Amino acid sequence: MECYDLITNIIVIILAILSLFPIYWLITNAFKTSADIYKMPPDILPKSLYLGNFKELFQNQPALKWTFNSFFVSIVTTTLSVILSSAAAYAFAKLNFKGKKVLYALFIASLMVPKETFIVPLFKTVVAFGWVDTYQSLIVPNLAMCFGVFMLKSFFESIPDSIRESAKLDGASEWYIFWKLMLPIAKPGIGALFILNFVTFWNDYLWQLLMARSKGMNTLTVGVAGLMQEINPNIGLRVAGAAVAALPMIIIFIMFQKYFTKGIAAGAVKE
């Protein structure tokens, strides 16, 4: 049994190293010149830390503005979408209203429709509102996340109804029950949803590309992709941009990984 556990741990460690190697390779290449990146055989460890790529990225490109745009759009959109998803999930799980089952079935059915299929009418709607090249166009269309409702509904259903009924007898309002009692209990699921939504909105390249017309409104994902399209690209600059774009997602996951693992594990055993 001990030998089996040892072999299992060794396999897990090897797989973990292999899965982390692309991140390591991205970060180390960001500190290399283009010549060193193309060098064959490549250097596993950089011989020196070359900071010229980051200097060019932040001095000759509006990378700070792109980074701010990405953080602002991703955090605001994620926060609002999680709040709306939580409220809708609580309503479907605990409240009784006419057409509840039909409406929830429509929510689930909408998960089968890829965003690309309705991106044209969505784009026309945003143009009609005059929101093109504004933060509203990058935030508002992504607030209604059916997946979040589907994910959190099981968490609220697992909470005993006696908690809500006791609070009702004490004169608590529905909003108080939702905000003060239900949300703290569903914190693991909300943390997992926050990570998933943040990564989704941070990497929402297609929609951000359509809405951000000016260079100052570009997000980091769109800005770095634009650098890739230039003739005779400086590969070191592109790799540095990709590393900067990937870093916030790594930080967010580290910050919320406790809730993410708890949320996924809890969601796996709920009926």
From TrEMBL:
Q: Which GO terms describe its cellular component?
A: plasma membrane
Q: Its principal location?
A: membrane
- Domain of life here? Bacteria
Q: Which InterPro entries match?
A: MetI-like, MetI-like_sf
Location comes to: Cell membrane
The protein's topology relative to the membrane is:
Multi-pass membrane protein
Keyword Flavoprotein belongs to the record: no
Q: Which UniProt keywords apply?
A: Cell membrane, Membrane, Transmembrane, Transmembrane helix, Transport
Q: Which GO terms describe its biological process?
A: transmembrane transport
Q: Transmembrane stretches, by residue range?
A: 7-27, 71-93, 102-123, 135-156, 177-202, 235-256
Tell me the ranges covered by the ABC transmembrane type-1 domain, including all copies: 67-256
Transmembrane recorded as keyword: yes
Q: Which Pfam families match?
A: BPD_transp_1
Q: Which family does it belong to?
A: Belongs to the binding-protein-dependent transport system permease family.
Report the protein name in the record.
Answer: Carbohydrate ABC transporter permease
